C-alpha cells in the first residue's frame, strides 16, 4: 500500500482526545468545542479534561493547581544548566537541553500522570529563568494561588501581570493545547511507541514543533509584517514572495480548508483587548490582502489564515518578545502531547511504517 506524500489523509490512530472538522472549521476536545472551553473554563481544567477525559471536581482542581505550582521550582542543577548554555543558543534548544537533564528512571515507561504534571509545570519556569538570565535579571519564583498562565507571565516579567493579559494568554493556551496528529504530536506518539521515557517523547516533539512550517511560524509572521512595513507595500511584497515560490507565513493548513477557528477566536481576543493598536490594524489589513492574493495565485487551493498568524498578534499584545513565541506554544502543546502519549501507552504497538527502496542494487 502506498500513501500520499506527507501522509496526507492517512489515518494512523483512533483517538478520543480531539476532533477537527477541516471543512467547517470546528475543533473539539473530548466532546467540547475548544472556543467554548476558552471562554468558559480555566486552562488547568482543560488540561485535566485532555488527560483524564473529564473535568475535575473542585477538590481535584485544587490538588492539580497545587501540583502544578509545586513542580515549578527549579533545582540548583537546572538553574546551573540554564545559565551554562551559551547565550546564542535558541530558547527551544535550551528547553530541550534542560528537559534532557530530567530524564531519570522515574520518567520511564509507562508514562505517569505525576511525571506529566512535572514536565508541564517545569517548562514555563525553564523558559522564564533563561529569559531573565539573558537579561542579567534574577529568577522569579511562582506564587501559590496564581493561575498557570499568570505565573508564567510573572516569572518572565517579574511583576504581577495585567488581568487582561492573563485572560488573553489563558485563551491562547486553551486554543493551542491540542490539535490531533499534527507533526509534533505524531512525533511524540512515535517516540512513546518505542516505550521510551516520557521526557524523550516530549523532547522529540519539541524538535518537530520548532520548524517554521509548524510551531516556528509566529515569529516568521511578525518578521513578515515588519518586512512589509506599510500597507502600500503589502501586495507588491507578498506577490513577489509568491512569484519566487515562497510561502506566506501564517497561511495554509493541511486540515483546514476554511478559516482555522483558532485564528478567528484569537483575532477576537486581541480585538477586544488591544484592537485599537496600529500594528493590529495593520495585521488585519495585511491578512485581507494576503487572502485575496492567495486566492488569485493559487485558485485551486483553499488557503486560509491559520492559528499562527494571530498567535503572533496575541503574544505581541501581551508583551512577550518574539524569542518566546514558539516556546510559549510549546508550553501549552505539551498538554496535548502528553494526552496522546498516555493514549498511545494504553494500547501500544511500535509505529513502524515501510519505505520503498529505489536505490541501486549493484
Ligand atoms: C500550528 C501550525 O503548525 S499551523 C501551520 C503553520 N505554518 C505556516 O504558517 C507556514 C506556511 N504554511 C505552509 O507551509 C503549509 O500551508 C503547511 C505546512 C501548513 C501545510 O502544508 P501542506 O498541507 O503540505 O500543503 P502544501 O505545502 O503541499 O501546499 C499545497 C499548495 O498550497 C500552497 N500553499 C500552502 N500554504 C501556502 C502559503 N502559506 N503560502 C503560499 N502558498 C501556500 C503550496 O505552495 C501548494 O501549492 P502548489 O500545489 O501550487 O505547489
Ligand atoms: O494540525 C497541524 O498540522 C498544525 C496545527 O495547526 C497545530 O499543530 O496546531
UniProtKB/TrEMBL annotation:
GO terms assigned for molecular function:
citrate synthase activity
Enzymatic reactions? oxaloacetate + acetyl-CoA + H2O = citrate + CoA + H(+)
Please name the GO terms of the biological process aspect recorded for this protein, alphabetically.
carbohydrate metabolic process; tricarboxylic acid cycle
Entry annotation: catalytic residues: 253, 308
Q: Where is the signal peptide?
A: none
The record ties this protein, via InterPro entries, to: Citrate_synth-like_lrg_a-sub, Citrate_synth-like_sm_a-sub, Citrate_synthase, Citrate_synthase_AS, Citrate_synthase_bac-typ, Citrate_synthase_sf
Involved pathway(s): Carbohydrate metabolism; tricarboxylic acid cycle
Q: Name one GO cellular component term.
A: cytosol
Keyword set for this entry? Answer: Transferase
Q: Which family does it belong to?
A: Belongs to the citrate synthase family.
What's the protein name? Citrate synthase
Organism expressing this protein natively: Paenactinomyces guangxiensis
Amino acid at each position: 500500500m502506498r500513501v500520499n506524500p506527507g501522509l496526507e489523509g492517512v489515518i494512523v490512530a483512533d483517538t478520543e482526545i480531539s476532533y477537527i472538522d477541516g471543512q467547517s472549521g470546528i475543533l473539539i476536545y473530548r466532546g467540547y468545542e475548544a472556543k467554548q472551553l476558552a471562554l468558559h473554563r480555566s486552562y488547568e481544567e482543560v488540561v485535566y479534561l485532555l488527560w483524564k477525559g473529564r473535568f475535575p471536581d473542585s477538590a481535584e482542581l485544587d490538588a492539580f493547581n497545587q501540583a502544578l505550582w509545586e513542580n515549578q521550582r527549579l533545582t540548583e542543577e537546572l538553574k546551573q544548566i540554564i545559565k551554562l548554555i551559551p547565550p546564542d543558543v535558541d530558547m527551544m534548544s535550551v528547553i530541550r537541553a534542560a528537559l534532557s537533564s530530567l530524564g531519570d528512571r522515574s520518567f520511564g515507561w509507562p508514562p505517569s500522570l505525576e511525571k506529566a504534571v512535572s514536565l508541564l509545570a517545569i517548562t514555563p519556569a525553564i523558559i522564564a529563568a533563561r529569559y531573565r538570565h539573558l537579561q542579567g535579571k534574577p529568577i522569579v519564583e511562582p506564587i501559590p494561588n496564581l493561575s498557570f498562565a499568570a505565573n508564567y507571565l510573572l516569572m518572565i516579567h517579574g511583576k504581577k501581570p495585567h488581568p487582561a493579559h492573563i485572560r488573553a494568554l489563558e485563551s491562547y493556551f486553551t486554543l493551542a493545547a491540542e490539535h490531533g496528529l499534527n507533526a509534533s504530536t505524531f512525533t511524540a506518539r512515535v517516540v512513546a511507541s518505542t516505550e521510551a521515557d516520557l521526557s524523550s517523547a516530549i523532547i522529540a516533539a519539541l524538535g518537530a514543533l520548532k520548524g517554521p512550517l509548524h510551531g516556528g511560524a509566529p515569529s516568521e509572521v511578525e518578521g513578515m509584517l515588519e518586512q512589509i512595513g506599510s500597507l502600500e507595500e503589502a501586495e507588491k511584497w507578498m506577490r513577489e514572495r509568491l512569484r519566487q515560490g515562497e510561502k506566506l507565513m501564517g497561511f495554509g493548513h493541511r486540515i483546514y480548508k476554511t478559516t482555522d477557528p483558532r485564528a478567528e477566536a484569537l483575532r477576537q481576543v486581541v480585538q477586544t483587548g488591544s484592537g485599537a493598536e496600529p500594528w493590529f490594524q495593520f495585521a488585519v489589513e495585511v491578512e485581507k490582502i494576503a487572502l485575496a492574493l492567495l486566492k488569485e495565485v493559487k485558485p485551486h487551493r483553499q488557503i486560509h489564515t491559520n492559528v499562527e498568524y494571530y498567535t503572533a498578534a496575541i503574544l505581541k499584545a501581551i508583551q512577550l518578545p518574539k524569542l518566546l513565541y514558539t516556546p510559549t506554544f510549546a508550553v501549552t502543546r505539551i498538554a496535548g502531547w502528553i494526552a496522546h502519549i498516555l493514549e498511545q501507552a494504553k494500547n501500544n504497538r511500535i509505529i513502524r511504517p515501510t519505505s520503498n527502496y529505489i536505490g541501486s542494487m549493484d
